[in-house]
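Entry for the shared binder. Reason: the reviewer on the internal report wants the predicted structure included alongside the sequence.
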Amino acid sequence: MNIEVGGILGLILLICVIYAIVKTTQSSASTGTKVIWIVVLLLLPFLGFILWFLFGPK
């Protein structure tokens, strides 16, 4: 699966992933959970953001 995101969509995705990482680090979840979510967001930015949005720490 080779999906390339560039231009304005890439910038929007980058902002969304950074937002998700910041919100994850500020959450009251355990350290292990935070690390797992951050790794998922960094390795799978698009899918990771969608999963974080649906199932991430609140």
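Summary line for the report: Residues 16-55 form one domain.
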